[in-house]
Design goal:
Blueprint (H helix, E strand, L loop, with lengths): L4 H10 L9 H18 L31 H5 L5 E2 L2 E2 L7
Antiparallel strand pairs: 1-2
Length: 95
């Protein structure tokens, strides 16, 4: 895949980057080099390679998925101007 000068200007416009006409050929070369590298990566055989979450193999720490109010409802609403049964009371804004 090759990027032309018009595509470089469009990418710069979408990225909100000011690019002068003198910079376009250099950026065109840079983008073409990046795309060539990506195309080269697509040739690598990754069959049988598992995805990694880290460079070092490790098990993720997990906690039980339990619904809990934290036993701090009173602390949470303590500074609220108006509450009712551990809920914040707010003025009605829709009629």
């Amino acid at each position: 895949m090759s990027v032309d000068a018009a595509t470089v200007r469009r990418i710069a416009h979408l990225a909100r980057i000011a690019v002068s006409d003198a910079e376009v050929p250099h950026l065109q070369g840079e983008l073409n080099a990046m795309l060539a590298f990506v195309e080269q990566l697509s040739e690598v055989d990754v069959e049988g390679v598992e995805p990694m979450t880290s460079v070092m193999p490790m098990a993720m720490k997990k906690r039980p998925d339990v619904v809990d109010d934290g036993d701090i409802a009173d602390d949470i609403v303590r500074n609220a101007p108006a509450t009712e049964q551990h809920f914040f009371l707010v003025p009605k804004v829709v009629e």
